[in-house]
# Entry
Amino acid sequence: MCATEVGVDLVSISQMTAMLEASGQPYRDQCWTVDEQAYCGDSAARYASRWAAKEAAMKALGHGIGEIDPVDIEVVAFEGQRPVLRLSGTARAFAEAAGVELAVSMSHEGDIATAFVVATR
# Structure
């Protein structure tokens, strides 16, 4: 892994809405922590931006969804503050092995949610 790696992802908010409606609570429990679900409430845009952050983090770590459990990447956010990533399990193990820390930036507008993650040594 280089000194700096970047991951980016885009998510359709309307597709996220459809997934949340079709798959219900089991889908939420597979992909988002209890705290993330509490923060997102019924906001598909918030779920979508967090999913984008999880995917971008996996890309920055050089590993995919089959190797990293989505709930091992948690977006911690408080109104008015920048979000941070809390890693556990497989995500934490890959980050520690690579000797990197992750920084995230997320946004959503219209039907698109996006996230950028930078992994630095």
Notes: The radius of gyration is 14 Å. The first strand starts at residue 4 and ends at 12. The chain has four helices and five strands. Helices lie at 13-31, 34-40, 44-61, 89-98.
